[in-house]
Amino acid sequence: MAARVAAVGLSSEHAFSKTAAESVRLLEGLGVEGDAHMGATVQHRSRVARDPTQPNLRQVHLIPGELHDELRESGYRVRPGDLGENVTTRGLDLLALPTGTLLDLGPSAVVEITGLRNPCTQIDGFQQGLLAEVVGRDADGAVVLKAGVMGVVRATGPVRPGDAIGVRAPAPPHSPLRRV
């Protein structure tokens, strides 16, 4: 299956979930036009409180639609945007991508992957027990974060459900994704 955009969403307020949209516009260096997390510097309230001058490495949140499938199989009710993502993907293992991977979304938008989303207890406020589903451990006991990846916009453009996703890995050596 070719990688594609399954859904897009945004919220003008600092709400946990995003509202599904027919399209979003990504703005270079800023994020999703009209989204509360848009900006060149951090927009997440907890990070603003610590240091409002930090660069915003979390302009766009992407989650694989396959995670929604897993969560539904475990009894949770989740739809695209419910976990705060701006872009829901299909056919792409986002968590396996190295830091710095460029994703070509739609006709012209480009997002550079900066790292893993660090899920917080707000997820349990959405549905109790969900945090344990998106934070696990691998066979060696290392923490595995499954709540998607974060990125910054490198080229402006519209993104719609059904758009193709191109993947351009950075030059080696590759760095694994870490929390941002």
TrEMBL record:
Q: Which Pfam families did the record assign?
A: MOSC
Q: Where would I find the MOSC domain in this sequence?
A: 19-168
Which GO MF terms does the UniProt record name?
A: catalytic activity; molybdenum ion binding; pyridoxal phosphate binding
Q: Which domain of life is it from?
A: Bacteria
Q: What is this protein called?
A: Molybdenum cofactor biosysynthesis protein
Organism whose genome encodes this protein: Streptomonospora alba
